[in-house]
Design a protein that fits this description.
Radius of gyration: 16 Å
Structural class: alpha/beta
Order of helices and strands: EHEHEHEHEHEHEHEHH
Family: Belongs to the ribulose-phosphate 3-epimerase family.
Number of helices: 9
Keywords: Carbohydrate metabolism, Isomerase, Metal-binding
Number of domains: 1
Largest sheet: 8 strands, parallel
Bound molecules: D-xylitol-5-phosphate, zinc ion
Pathway: Carbohydrate degradation
Strand order of the largest sheet: 1-8-7-6-5-4-3-2
Shape: globular
Catalytic activity: D-ribulose 5-phosphate = D-xylulose 5-phosphate
Distance between the termini: 15 Å
CATH superfamily: Aldolase class I
EC number: 5.1.3.1
């Protein structure tokens, strides 16, 4: 297994002071930033696009930025985000007309590529694209909003994906997104995840460092 990564979702950050808040959460021990792009079409909420990613880079954020596209169409956004400084780009299979092509496009634009599965989306796409994946993201809530509760069926799905990754021999991260908290992160890791997105658990807390330290302590148990 790869070292665990904690990725705060800026969906729950202070958007009026985004640069400062991102800088702060990184100083408090976050490994990277998770950037939720919502289009009020694929998901019923609207957030931010590539100019905001670019602004974070211009502000001086050098940590990896993990762009989670909950938007359709996907391909034009891939190019925009790659230019804006994204490190990795993940998208939902249902949102792309040509999944294989989109995965290739992400790598061709110099970013790590990942496919996202909603809680009830079957894993069958994985039969065909393991060689084109740098990461697999399992949603543990329905996408669109922060602050929802972790869906327990995700644990079994994580175990299935962990097995597929290990059997494939490819170097693929297994990311989980939604309802990740101090009190469930160890169980999620035991099921096979190695990258943890957490929005409200971190940004709604008064002390980001304490939450991240507590999460790492749980992961070390
Ligand atoms: C949901 C987003 C998540 C969300 C996680 O659609 O993809 O990244 O912000 O938020 P929490 O950790 O609050 O569930
Ligand atoms: Zn996300």
């Amino acid at each position: 297994m790869k070292p665990y990564l904690i990725a705060p979702s800026i969906l729950s950050a202070d958007l009026a002071r985004l640069g400062e808040d991102v800088e702060n959460v990184l100083k408090c021990g976050a490994d990277l930033i998770h950037f939720d792009v919502m289009d009020n079409h694929y998901v019923p909420n609207l957030t931010f696009g590539a100019p905001v990613c670019k602004a974070l880079r211009e502000y001086g954020i050098t940590a990896p930025i993990d762009v989670h596209l909950m938007a359709t169409p996907v391909d034009s956004l891939v190019q925009d985000f790659a230019k804006a400084g994204a490190t990795s780009i993940t998208f939902h299979g249902e949102a792309s007309l040509h999944i294989d092509r989109t995965l290739q496009l992400i790598r061709d634009n110099g970013c790590q590529a990942g496919l996202v599965f909603n809680p009830a989306t079957p894993l069958s796409y994985l039969d065909y694209v393991m060689d084109k994946l740098d990461m697999i993201l399992l949603m543990s809530v329905n996408p669109g909003f922060g602050g929802q509760s972790f869906i327990p069926a995700t644990l079994d799905k994580l175990r299935q994906v962990r097995q597929r990754i290990d059997d494939s021999g490819f170097d693929i991260r297994l990311e989980v997104d939604g309802g990740v908290k101090i009190n469930n992160i160890a169980q999620i890791a035991a099921a096979g995840a190695d990258m943890f997105v957490a929005g409200s658990a971190i940004f709604d807390a008064p002390d980001y460092k304490k939450v991240i330290d507590d999460m790492r302590a749980e992961l070390a148990k």
